[in-house]
Amino acid sequence: MELHLDISLAGSIKACQQLTELANSNFVPAFALLPPAKRQAMEILYAFTRFSDDIVDLPDPNDPDPNANGVPVDIALQRKKQKLGQWISALESVFGKPDNTTPPQIDPHDTPAFQRLAQRFPDCGGLVLLPAMKMIVDKYNIPREPLFHLIEGIESDIEPRVFATFDDSSGYCHQVATSVGYASLAIWGTAMPIFSEPVLKAARACGIAFQWTNIVRDLLEDYRNGRIYLPQTELRRFGLTDEQFGSVLDGAQWHKQKTAQKGNNHEQFTFKEMLREMGQVEENFAQLLTYQLERCEMYYENSLPLYDLIHGDSRRAFGLMWNYYYALYQKMVRQPLLVTGNSRIRLSSLKKLQLWCRWRFMLCRRLPKR
Asked: pLDDT tens digits, residue range 258-317?
């Protein structure tokens, strides 16, 4: 996404707002439920996370098309690594390295300092976001470590990957989801320190609940991109190979396989045996999917205390975000095979409006589980 080039603090804030508006995220309506200063801060934080994520997820229009020109995919991967490396170096110049207790003293109003940074990293369009980001980090005392943990998680997505155990998968969730949650909590304000045990426990549960909902929803899209975020140990526990998992997951392709078996000239016994084996694969897949959704429910339950730990003027915004994700999760529980379709699972516009009105106009004392 193209950003406004004014690297002054005012220009930076405007660029963050523009990027947030263009992203059209389901989180953005929740920002309207915050006081103006916190709303602006969340728009800045969102723009930072969006730009960071897009370095890996979006194709660079300046890169050659590997399909059209026969350029090896490695070139595109290398380009992403270089761009993300520049972004990390720029962040370290502004915020210091995570293990450095005395970060650089850069004033968000010091436009020349950011201009010099732009000269060092001419290909890094996200630099325009940094004055605004530095402003909110200083103002709300946002910890630096989660910001870099987010980048680490994004960096690990550059190349296809698999996870051996749930500990590995949950570690990724904490990098890309809980880290943003910690920064958000710093902006919203909490009844006790962010890294105190009650806040830490509920925030980590919320991060996994949100990200695991994303993972289950995007199983097919991720598989096509060479990514399986579900733990390998759990696929094997439910009797699935990666290939079987992908075959059932792609509902249209799986239907073609079954139809092709019917059309082949098999002996009757062999044909029945093939159908029996395919039916068992489907059953194993269904059990695996049920297990993942039950896991989501547990983490949503463990995240409930976070609502009361957040400052009163920010609870509605968090409540809407939580309620949106929980409604998305419930939709998959009611219709789990939606994950095998080609259309992305979404809430209807009417449902989104209902949720927004609930949190905008109703007196909400707790997170609604039903």
From this structure: 676 655 555 544 556 666 777 888 999 999 999 999 999 999 999 999 999 999 999 999
**How far is the C-alpha of 204 from the C-alpha of 149, rounded, in Å?**
14
SS3 label, residue 190: strand
pLDDT digits 0-9 by tens, 158-174: 888 889 999 999 999 99
Rg (CA), the chain: 23
Element containing residue 49 per DSSP (H, E)? helix 36-57
- Using CA atoms, how far residue 148 sits from 91, 143, 151, in Å, is 8, 10, 5
Residues of the chain with CATH 1.10.600.10: 160-370
- Give the CATH superfamily of 160-370: Farnesyl Diphosphate Synthase (1.10.600.10)
What residues are paired with 228 via a beta bridge? 162
Task: Report the distance separating Cα 370 and Cα 368, nearest Å.
Answer: 6
CB atoms within 10 A of CB 226: 10
SS3 106: coil
Q: Is the pTM of this model over 0.85?
A: yes
CA–CA separation, 141 and 111 (whole Å): 21
